[in-house]
Design a protein that fits this description.
Endonuclease III, domain 1, Nucleoside Triphosphate Pyrophosphohydrolase, five-stranded mixed beta sheet, 43% helix
Length: 355
């Protein structure tokens, strides 16, 4: 019974009770839909909102993004993390601008071929921009369907994903795919939440398997745990005449194409005396130089935990031992994209470089 009425209840809830407002809701411009979806991957809506608005202000159309200087794009992205998203954003914007005359493809299959776009984002663009019947399946959808239909198969397994995907396509309102997709995502974000779901206001309360069996907190099931790697970064911030040495990270590692100060990375936590001695040996710190060593600043990435320490000091002469680093004045430094670990350090300490 609930299978037949699911989309009806959901659309009714969306039209009469859904108060969630976002600037990209209801738009048909595939560029704006794509931009919002890429920004919101691994990002909360309240955090992503200002980034979306800044991008639209600076790059109103895909051609503007395609023609932009990469450093400016990365600077606007600064703080969002997962910088591969930004690299793919630039690449895809250039492909659409140069090879498709600024026009997004209008089929799910063609959208899916674009770099950085997976099944979820392709379905979102296809349904929201072109009213194509493809179900959007994100964490909210997994949670809602697992609870309402009592799916106990783990959603982070191949079998679980197949069950949810098939069910999502079956339930999709083919006449209103865009509205349906937005509604189920909003419903999962505001009513059927991960913690403290508002079951009393749920239109599926009388039919929801999880609610009737009192297992709401147990669904959806997840069994996999990702191992987290801890990395110890020791950044050196020598200042000489209001300039600091920096370089772009070019290796295929975290923060590729962002900038950093001279860095010593260790496999384990290292004492201050030992790390300063290592820097002296490298020629980064003259013997006898007074240094200021920060507390540990931590940043959790998807599969990594970064523990960063910042060592600040002044030089009487520009040290020639910083190979592959460029000395940059504060005014230029502010325009470069840095990892969140570094910008947060300056924000918290008031060190003044980025102020």
């Amino acid at each position: 019974m609930i299978h037949n009425l699911f989309s009806h209840y959901l659309i009714d809830w969306n039209r009469n009770k859904n108060k969630r407002e976002m600037p990209w809701k209801g738009v048909k411009d595939p560029y704006k839909i794509w931009l919002s979806e890429i920004i919101l991957q691994q990002t909360r809506v309240d955090q992503g909102l200002k980034y979306y608005e800044n991008f639209i202000t600076n790059f109103p159309a895909v051609q503007d993004l395609a023609a932009a200087d990469e450093k400016k794009v990365f600077k606007l992205w600064e703080g969002l993390g997962y910088y591969s998203r930004c690299k793919n954003l630039i690449h895809t914007a250039r492909v659409i601008s140069s090879e498709r005359n600024g026009r997004f493809p209008d089929t799910y299959e063609a959208i899916l071929e674009l770099k950085g776009i997976g099944p979820y984002t392709a379905a979102a663009i296809a349904s929201f921009a072109f009213d194509l019947p493809h179900a959007v399946i994100d964490g909210n959808v997994f949670r809602v369907l697992a609870r309402v239909f009592g799916i106990r198969e783990a959603i982070d397994t191949t079998a679980g994903k197949k069950i949810i995907t098939a069910l999502a396509e079956q339930l999709l309102d083919k006449e209103n795919p865009g509205e349906y997709n937005q509604a189920i995502m909003d419903f999962g974000a505001t009513v059927c939440k991960p913690a403290n779901p508002d079951c009393e206001q749920c239109p599926f309360k009388n039919d929801c398997t999880a609610y009737k069996e009192d297992i709401v907190g147990l669904l959806p099931v997840k069994i996999k745990r990702t191992a987290v790697r801890t990395r110890y970064f020791y950044f050196f911030l020598p200042q000489y005449r209001n300039a600091w040495p920096v370089r772009e990270r070019l290796d295929k590692d975290i923060w590729q194409h962002l900038y950093e100060f001279p860095l010593i990375e260790k496999k384990e936590e290292t004492g201050s005396a030992a790390i300063v001695a290592a820097a002296i040996k490298k020629g980064w710190i003259p013997k006898g130089t007074a240094v200021i060593i920060s507390p540990v600043h931590s940043q959790k990435l998807s599969h990594q935990l970064i523990k960063a320490v910042f060592i600040s000091y002044r030089l009487n002469e520009k040290n020639p031992r910083f190979e592959n680093y460029n000395w940059v004045k504060a005014a230029v430094l502010k325009t470069l994209p840095f990892p969140k670990t570094i910008t947060q350090y300056f924000d918290k300490t008031g060190a003044g470089i980025f102020n």
